[in-house]
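Dear colleague,

Following up on yesterday's call, I've attached the two folding results inline so they're easy to grep. Please treat them as preliminary; we haven't cross-checked anything against experimental data yet. The first protein's sequence and structure tokens come first.
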Amino acid sequence: MTWSQADGRLQYRPLASRALPEAKEAAPLTEGAGGDPEAPLLDPLDHDTVDWRATGLCFLFPALGGLLFGYDIGATSGVLTSLTNPQLSGTDWSNLSAFQSGLVVSTSLLGALAGSLVALAAGNRLGRRTEILLAALLYGVSSASLGAADSLNWLLACRLGYGLGIGLAMHAAPAYIAETSPPTVRGLLISLKEAAIVGGILLGYFTGYVFADDVGGWRSMYACAAPLALALGLGMASLPESPRWLLLSGAGRDAAAAALARAEGARAADPRVVQAELDAMVTGAAADGGGGGGSQGGAKLLALFGEARYRRPLLIGSSLMLFQQITGQPSVLYYANQIFEKAGFSSGQEAAEVSVVLGAFKLLMTIVAVATVDKLGRRPLLLAGVSGMVVALLALGLAQGSGGGGGGAVAGVSVVALLLYVGCYQVSFGPISWLIVGEVFPLAVRSQAIALAAVMNYASNFGVSLALPTVQEAVGLPATYLGFAGVGVVALLSIYLTVPETKGKTLEEIEAMWSSGGTTAAAAIAAPKARDEGGSQ
């Protein structure tokens, strides 16, 4: 990618700028900028200028909804250590069983699953912006109430409410960012949303470290999310609705044009850019059945399962969401402090310190993924990253099963293996899964499909997080990690056979891959293989 400055605006240009072939043939070359016939001819579809003030705001606040999801993950790791310590809990119900500890972690995921089901049924009727506003309300009320919880049942009820907010935010945020971003930076911004989630995890780990030795510190860890939820609500209230959703819902071209102008800022100052993008959106919406986004959710859900053109993207999205969780991610994030204590770090404070390092490394590797996703592509990062995760899980299983107890060697191997796992996860499943989910589904069923993929994600996350303490008690950590490694091998095979490359394509071009009966998608899988074979000769 390259950056330049013109007319006081930053411009982002991909290394290989690509226009829409079919649309470009139909797009007339018009007179120069400002109406000067002597100025160079301008094709609006080649107008790659990005107004980062407007585009950045349309990314920042939806991404804050993801940061609050990540914060819950990181903070809960410290909460478990604080809440289950009789000296630090500040409660008379600190002696939690393995199953109750699993409930503390997984109840928010159960709420996220419920929120995803709500989005599945009513997401198109609500709209992306309204969903995120509801999520901000649930985040704020629940986090403030968690800080005052005086019983396990109260805590679990508040965790459920917070999870409802997660489900709504994580359904709407990828769609909102994908639908308001210029094509040249869509992959960058959706991947940066994952960086926001990871930044939230790091912030949660750090908050756990700050309050680790405070009596009742777990209350402060949870309550610190409330100001962030307020910022999310105020920010989203100032943003426009997704222009693509407005078209799909039947709001009309004028409403969509106004929203697009607000979302893209100075880039939309040229009316030819707005008209070209609206033409592509209208064509896509017409091909997908036009408006009615708010009233045909059930019919579209049936179509998602029944029509052949939707089966491939549904398989890709659902499988990525499933494998993202059942390859061990919840065990590393939610139980990081406890894993480090078992690995030989004697105190909760020491374990929290290492968790902060883990979170910082996770953020660093997410930045690496963001910087390379539009250059290297989605598919290579997935294959390389998941391969590294399998190696890390094998190392963890062998280290924990070596019989060395909490010795220094086992602790060192465990830390290195966890860092390897986190690094590989963050350049693969972490950002790429949500990026592909935001890209591959046709507009007509995008809301229902993303919600269904999120249901798969949270259902598997809930199951793993709830069962993990009990499974570890029953079979031990070594067998648990080796089992995750086996699942990782299956995930690799699934990615290799099903996931095409979507780098550099507009949402409408990706949609055309499925309407061609899958032949274009098959070519997108075969092309990287051919390049690899040619490069190795």
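Below is the second protein, in the same order (sequence, then structure):
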Amino acid sequence: MQACSLFSVACSGFWRRGRGNRFRGLSRTAQERLPVRPEDAGIFDELNLHAEAGQIEPAQKIFRKLQATTHAEGGLHRMVWNTMLKAHANAGDVPGARALFEAMKTHSVTPNRQTFGKLMEAAAKAGDVRGAEAWFSGRSDTASIWRGRTSVPFAILLDACAKAGDLQRSELWLQKMCEAEVAPSVHCYSALISCCATIGSPPDAEYWFSRMLHGGVSPTVIAYNAVLDSFAQVGDERGAAKWQQRIHEAGLEPTECSYSSIITAAVRNRNQVAAVNALEEMLSKTLQPSLVCFNGVIHSCSKNEEAEKWLRKLRESNLQPDEVTFTSLIHSAKRSPKQAARWLRSMISEGLKPSVECYTAVIDSCAGRGDLSQAAEWLKEMLETKIRADAKAYNSVINAAAKASQADEAIFWLEQMRSSSVLPTEVSYTAVVDSCVKEGKSSLASKYFQRMADEGLTPDMVAFTTLISGFLRKGEFAEAEERLTLAKSLGLVPDATCYNAFLAAWARRGDLPKATELLEQMQREEVTPDLVSYNTMLKSCSKAGDVPSAIRWLKEISKASLSPDVISWNCAIGACAASKPIESAKAEEFFRQFAASGLKPDGLLLRTLTSAVGPKTRRWLCEELEEHWSGKERFGPFWSGESNHLRLTHTHTQV
């Protein structure tokens, strides 16, 4: 997002004048040369005001009124036509500008530089480089218009290139300008630097800024802002700050555009503090922040309360929130479905039309909190309001159904997606497969996995792992290994998550040798085991009561530069408790190592320790090692009570 356009400051017209009735007090001779009758001077000024703002509809009403009053006197003056043309130019309305030009010819109005300048500006504002070039050099009736060494048409062309982000053509037109012995103005260089900002190329922006200095052209704050914005577009806060400092060093004052770019850089880095600081500095300097500035800060807010505070300040600045504002507010409330829904309702009540992104954000918020029914209701409302839902909206509901283990609901929304001519993605099918797996429907999971491939979609390793997990949960090892082989044949590389599914299956069976063999295979295939992998091995040891293997895998965790967590130590102590006979001394040693690591015991670990050493030993062990924990309040009930007083405060889910 480019902070500020150069169209409002560069090449914006040849004859723009001050506002108000400019024709009062003129002599009779001067009044005879007016573009309108003296009594219509005020109306003409109103036309010019609408033209400056690019307000085509009200400008057309006044233009037609002037046409009606001057029809009997030979038609409108060329200046009036050019003023109407300016409205189309400032709105970037290329078709409207062209139609008005053809009407000028029909009324035998001879175009001049201003006419073609406005036609070029219309194309430039729309980013239509070829169209601007055509008005400059592609017509026979423009051949004599641009005689003389003026930089204005070149500046307009450079503006068009900046809007389109076409640096190559920008440089070409600057070269042609020099070949025509026309000295580039500061507007020309600013437009070229702005093009560098559009494509996010700070090195090119700095290069052309230095070329401007070497050419003896004094940069304005607009040129500085263009370089600053180039850094903002790539999220380079340090570079943006450096160029803001250079503005000060040049004896210039940063403008609203300067701060807007600083905010853009901060937002791209998710740096809420920097974005807020920039906006507060603007307000302290009595600069009027634009809606873009406020929207950037609201977008950066991670908490809805903060976003709401800046919405109030936006309104206090006599600005009105737009679609972007409410979209950012909805995103800030992603952890609160009710709040996100409230912002969507507020948006509608203020006469704004929610976009697909707005509804999808609310749906995603509900889905993220596991509220499948609300997510589905919002998707239904979205469809009822004739807003075409995209794949992301459907996928949010399908994912919510998968998390809730509701395969039928996931399949229903997949079919709705297809019937609405929205193509399902790999994410859609993977979520459906996951929902089937969670319900233990491995055959149904296989069906939708195959449909994904039949529709030309390529399953990724996540999809394969999801299906493999389904087979392994039902003990169908042959089918799981067959899918793993297929994944490898497609060039996919199984990751730790995939192998962990196999490890967990062997662990559930208590088959420690098979699990050990698989982990060693992972290492041979250069798949780095993670802590979940090692904890799964320790779980196998715990079930088998294999203390030596538990010691081995604790050492392997350290060798892998990982640190055992509460689950690791719980499994190791569990191996001691399941050993025949119980290895109480080793369990005590494990617990001492656990305490020395700085971890805090939870109810599950203390229960396991009790099984290994007995309640009395557990009690004095905890009292002895109390210094390793920040306080006794949280664990006191476990330390002093008997085993029947144990309360489970935390649970850890193992793979």
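For the second protein, one point worth flagging: DSSP finds 36 helices and no strands in the chain.

Best wishes,
A.L.
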